[in-house]
Amino acid sequence: MPEQPATEPNDDYWPIEIPLHVTWGDMDALGHANNTRFIGWFEETRFEVFRRIGRGDLGPHSPQGPILAKVECVFRAPVVFPEELVSAIRACDIGEDRYTLEHRITSVTHDRVVAIGSSRIIEVDYASGEKIPLSAEVRSALQKISR
Length: 147
Description:
The protein is of the alpha+beta class. The chain has helices spanning 35-52, 136-144, and strands at 16-21, 64-75, 84-92, 98-107, 112-125. The protein is 18% helix and 35% strand. The chain has a five-stranded antiparallel beta sheet, covered by helices on one side. A hairpin with a 5-residue loop joins strand 3 and strand 4.
């Protein structure tokens, strides 16, 4: 079954939220935050998930772990300096060797959702590049932050 594109979920369960501060350097020539910054903000929140599921020490020494297979962002409203944001994330679609993280970025300044999206994560053996099953510990931790 093909993946569904990111849509704004009907429920409001977002177990992990981190504050984001729009900086002057986030702006582009059109006077709003560059679209690439949203992907970076998703990444910041995604790494908070990795930390919470026991994958926070990733690096060149890691034999296995997550890779980003796909990322999608739907822009809902422009963001401008010095806006304050909250990036929220949750897990869904947890499979044997993969899972999806749903993203929502909200402007605290304007009380509106400015972007939604998803990240598809696959667990791999870094040396071989082959997919491997999620550990029981990672699956359990993901279940705790899933809707």
